[in-house]
Amino acid sequence: MTQMRVTTRRVLIVANPKARGYAPRKLATIRDALARDGVAVDLMQSQARGDIERIVADIGSGFDVIAVHGGDGTINEAIAGLRTIPAPQPALAIIAGGTANVLASETRAARDADAIAATIRDGLTAPLYYGLANGRPFVLMASAGLDAAVVARASPRLKRALGKWAYVASAFALKRRTNTPDLIVTTGKEELRCRLAICANAARYGGDYVIAPQTCATRPGLALVVVTDDSLLALLRIGWRMLSGRGLDGAGVRILDVSEATL
């Protein structure tokens, strides 16, 4: 992994105050710690979906580091904004929040405010890779089938109330309805018929649970996870294997290394 160091003089903290785990005191601690070391810090908050992307795209080029406080969706917005900035782009830092914040687990990002401030100040960076789905970046995964339906159904209000259990509640609600249609996924090498497909840029799913050990957001490459049976019993079996740390490959699941996939 190639690491580089940036000189941290100006930091922009972008925060989603509606995200579960929003911590204004933590942000203040980080801001004060950086200010004591002579680092100028600006803080901007989103009011609606898409604000983070617009803020980063509009003013991000004037900063050395963009520090994002929110969930994985907030981080994805920041990455979309960073893509529009000509090189050299600001570095990205994570101030974990949100329902799961899988990327923070994937990158082993610091959680303590003082440690986060020290990481930003020191400026040591590592590469972060992402995929594209219909032209939009995804740093974790893009999915189709039940998984995508569950994520779409879990409203911000439900996630604030239930945390990760919001996705479980949504999954059970959806399984009471008609099953999702079959999916046909083409990888360039073969055509696959399945019930659920996840194109993973990261190893982890839903927190610190590994579903695609051969990939990582800090390395190039994607993994395609296809599930051929999305019945309740099959999903419970997959969930148990995931929670217990056992591999998913073979439990009605195939995991393939891919560079692209078409649905």
Radius of gyration: 19 Å
- At the fourth level of CATH, the homologous superfamily of the largest domain is Probable inorganic polyphosphate/atp-NAD kinase, domain 1
Mean of the pLDDT scores?
Answer: 84
CATH topology of the largest domain: Rossmann fold
Q: Widest sheet: strand order? A: 3-2-4-5
Q: Enumerate how many helices there are, as a single number.
A: 9
- The portion of residues forming beta strands comes to 25-35%
Low-confidence spans: pLDDT under 50, at least 5 residues?
A: none
- Helix and strand content put the structural class at alpha+beta
Can you tell me the number of structural domains?
A: 2
Going by CATH, the architecture of the largest domain would be 3-Layer(aba) Sandwich
Major beta-sheet overview: 4 strands, parallel
Estimated helix fraction: 25-40%
Could you name the CATH class of the largest domain? Alpha Beta
Question: What does this protein look like?
Answer:
It is a single chain. This protein is α+β, with helices and mostly antiparallel strands. It folds into two domains: 4-128, Rossmann fold; 139-258, Tumour Suppressor Smad4, CATH 2.60.200. 33% of the residues lie in helices and 26% in strands. The protein contains nine helices and 16 strands. It has a four-stranded parallel beta sheet, sandwiched between helices. Helix 3 links the parallel strand 4 (65-70) and strand 5 (91-96). The radius of gyration is 19 Å and the shape is elongated. The mean pLDDT is 84.
Quick summary:
The chain has helices at 24-36, 51-59, 72-82, 102-107, 113-122, 146-153, 156-162, 165-175, 232-243, and strands spanning 4-5, 10-15, 40-45, 65-70, 91-96, 124-125, 131-133, 136-138, 141-145, 183-186, 191-194, 196-200, 204-205, 209-210, 222-227, 253-258.
